[in-house]
Structure formats: structure tokens, C-alpha cells
Amino acid sequence: RRGAGTLLVPVAADEQEGADLVAEVPEVADWLTGLPGALTLGNYVYADGATNVRVSVAVDALTLRVAAARPELALGFLATPTDVFVVPGEAVDFSVAAYAQRSAAAKLLGRPLRTLSGGRLLRRAYVPGSDPGINDSLVPQQGPNYALAKRLQRWRAAVARAAGTTVSMNVAPPTRTRSVVKNRALAAAYAGAHRFGVEVFEPATSNVLMAALLVHDLHTGGGPAHPHPWQDEAYAAAHGGLWRTPYAPRSALGLAAVLGLGAARG
What we know:
It is a single chain. This protein is mainly α. The protein has one domain. Helix content is 48%, strand content 9%. It has helices at 25-33, 50-69, 89-100, 104-116, 143-162, 178-181, 184-192, 203-219, 229-234, 249-265, and strands at residues 40-43, 74-79, 84-87, 133-136, 167-171. α2 (50-69) links the parallel β1 and β2. The two termini are 35 Å apart.
């Protein structure tokens, strides 16, 4: 379509289209460095299980090779909201206030649930007064490979930005992606998340939002500079409410799944 850009695909000598990112890093790097014009390398790869780590490491190696040949290279990343982040005091204050102002029914049900679960269910998200706070939104169902793969991308973004590279690294909102909805427990939790103040986005909405942030970052040198890497991550984070919910996200995950089970099946 007019204005939609041009898709370029590497073609091998035997006319095989595409490339294996894990096995052909040097070849892909050579192809990318030979492309004309300004170059932005977006690391948006995903695979199931341990392959996710392998492909993320491969793209990281690709990034280093291309950056060595093209110093003007810009980088793009999307951070998952289901990770651990340092968050600003205003998010902590909002969460603490929401916890204090929860309904009488929520308070009545919350106490026995916390007692019976040994304090695991419906815990407050932050220690009041924390500035900054620590938001732990890791989801066990996504597994350690997913967490490590996404953490590798965050590390590369922080190191590259510190070295002066233009970096777009924004926290994307919780989204009903294919990898999420095929996990029944996670799909159910997302379906019930709104009951705990978390907004889950449709893929089309997230795509437009994050594309707009990418364009903004590329036209502003990566956005405003901050004294600490956590502030770069927190700036313009589209966390969908995970940072401001009254409860520690994982302490409400099981209940959200129970409440969203019917909707997820539908």
C-alpha cells in the first residue's frame, strides 16, 4: 500500500529467501550493514522455551556486529510489563492510596484470604513511602527463559544508551498476544485483570501505540535523558496499571485467573 514502506528480505545464493537468526548471524549482519540509508535494528524476537534465549542472544550478537560497522545504528526494543522494574514514587503513592481506599467487601474478603494463604494472596504492592519503589510483575507461567530473554534486551538497551546510541526501549502494555492466549492460565488471568485495575490491550492497539513511541524516540534522539537507567525505562511506560494496582500483581494473579476463566473460554 502507498506509504506503508518497503519490505526487504535477504536472499541467499541458492535463492533461498530469509535467514536463520541463530545460525547465520554473520551473514545477516553483512546484509544489514550493506543496506543504504539510516538503519534502526529492532529486537522484537520471540520463540517458545529455551529457543527464546538462543534467538535473543543471537540478535544481541547481531546488534554488536552491525553497530561496529554502522556506528549511527539506532536500536529498538519493547520491554515486557511482566518483569521487575524500579518505579517512580508517584506510582507507589497511587497504589498505596488505592489499597487504603479499597471497598469494604474487598477488605472483608482480603483478610481471610491473606491469612489462609500465608500472606501470599492480595498483598499490598509497595511499602508506603517508597521512592522509588520496586514493582515485581514477573509471571511464573511465562517461565525463566522468557524472563532471561527479555532481561538481555533491557541490559543491551541500557548499555547502548549509556554509550550514546539512540535507543527506543519502552515498556509495552499487557497484551492479548498469541503467546499469551495459548496459555490457558495466563489467558484467564488477563481476562480477569480488569477487576484489579489492570488494562489488557488488544494487539492492534498495542502495535499502534508502540509504533508511535518508536517514531517519537527516533526523532528525539531516544527521548529525554535521565540520570539513572530505571528512569529511562519508567519514562512513557505503558504498563497498563500493573505499576499502580493496589495489590502486588502476582498476589492477585490466581484470583484474576479464577474470575476471568469464563471470559477466557468464551
